[in-house]
Structure formats: C-alpha cells, structure tokens
Amino acid sequence: MAEVKTTGVPAEKPAASAIPASTTASATRTAPGLTFRRLFTKPGVSPYDEIEWEKRIAQITDSKGGVIFEQKDVEVPKDWSMTATNIVASKYLHGTLGTPERESGVRALVTRVAETIRDWGLAQGYFRTPEDGATFHDELAHILLRQYAAFNSPVWFNVGCDRIEPNSDGQNWHWNAKTQTVEFGITGYSKPLAIPSRSAPPASSILSKTRSIPSSRSPKPKACSSSGDQAPAPTFLRCVLPQKVSAAAALPAVRLAS
User: Fold this and answer.
1) Which residues of 157-192 are buried (b: 16+ CB within 10 A; e: fewer)?
2) Is the pLDDT of residue 190 over 50?
3) Maximum pairwise Cα distance, the chain
4) Distance between the two ends of the chain, CA-based, in angstroms?
5) Could you state, in order of their start, the residue ranges of all structural domains in the chain?
6) Is the pTM of this model over 0.85?
7) Higher pLDDT, 91 or 5
8) Are 51 and 79 in contact (CB under 8 A)?
9) N or C: less crowded end of the chain, CB within 10 Å?
10) CB of 239 closer than 8 Å to CB of 250
11) Which tens digits make up the pLDDT trace of 56-83?
C-alpha cells in the first residue's frame, strides 16, 4: 500500500490550515515522504458512504439477566455482529454515557482514530503530499470499517481523545514531540488508558501490533474481529500506544505480526 520514494526533494509541507494546532512537528524532515495508491477506495468518495449503517441498542447482561451496560442508538455497519457492537460500545466509545461528549458509534470511533493518525502524519511531514495523507486516511478507514484488520485496545482507548476533550487538564505519562522525551503532564483528555505492564518500556518500544482475524473466530475484547465473510488481509498496521507519539510509528509497515 505504501510506496516510499528513494530519491527526490524535501517533503512537501501541507497547508497550515490542514495541520492541527495541537500537533507540532518535532523536526524538519528532508526525506521524500510516503506516497500511497488506492486499493479499496475511490478519490472523492468517502469510505463511510460505502457502508450501510444502522442504529442498535448495545446491551450486556449478567448471568441473571440484569443489565450491566446499555447504550441506545449505537451507529454500526449493518453487517457487524451484535457481539462486535457490544464490545465497541462498552469498551471503546469515549465519553460519559448520556452526555454530548459520548461517541455515538463505530463511525465516530473510526473517524477519531483514522483522522488523528492522518493529522500526525501531515503535521510531521511523513506524507509526500496532502493527497497522500488523504489516500492513507481513506484506505485505513475502509480497512477498519470492513474489519480486514483492527488495532489493539490501547489505540481505541487513547488516540484522538483530546479532540473530544480539548479543554481537559487530565494528566498522564506521554511522549512530548517538542522535547523528544517521555514526561508526566497534560494529555488533553481526562481518562487515558493503557495496557498494564510490569515496568514502563521506552517510548520507542511502546508499539501495539494489530492482527487480521479470520471470520470464523469469535470476537475478542482486545480488538473487534471480522464478523463477515471477507478473507483476512495481511497484517500491516502498527500504532503507538500513548497519545501524542510520533506519527511515524502509526503509519503502515509491511510486516506480519508474529
């Protein structure tokens, strides 16, 4: 999917209006940048418009039938299973239930993650042109919506949540792109979540690999799996765990998960 040019000129900078104010490039890049060609999407056609959507009630009950979680009008692709719907609604949608900040479903969730990773790449010069950034975004959104691959939980938990809570003063350990260090400070959202670990790894090693999951498997809570008849695609997505980490690690890498 990604085609890296080995010769060329300094990476073109996207227009200032395309770069989110909250993201600052850590250094000026002189590499040509990544180019992308479309495999699943068409220019000018939103990947969200190629999906048939419906609204459902996501509900989880205990062994006695008592409701322990419920969210109404959750927007999901029509061909997703109810198991996948319940997992997404109960674990990955950001915001307090019953408030305007609560994400409404899969469209909002994928938009948050895919647009944030695209914006990191644009701001930090990882795309050769803004059009390559748009292609990357559309292809990634298509892959996630069709369940050809899925990020592990920390990506859904954290990436882009500062878009929802721009005025939050919540603090946690995170990567500071300006100082190139890991620090404790404001992350831009109130409840950052991460994978529990015995010790904090270096920022460069905090990577979450995604795996394509055969449709015959039952969905796992750590990543919504395929519920349709599509054949699993080779795994090529990687994304960094904490918020505000360099976009480089979030861009596709042609490498199968071990």
Assistant:
1) bbbbbbbbbeebeeebebbebeeeebeeeebbbbeb
2) yes
3) 65
4) 20
5) 2-250
6) no
7) 91
8) no
9) C
10) yes
11) 999 999 999 999 999 999 999 999 999 9
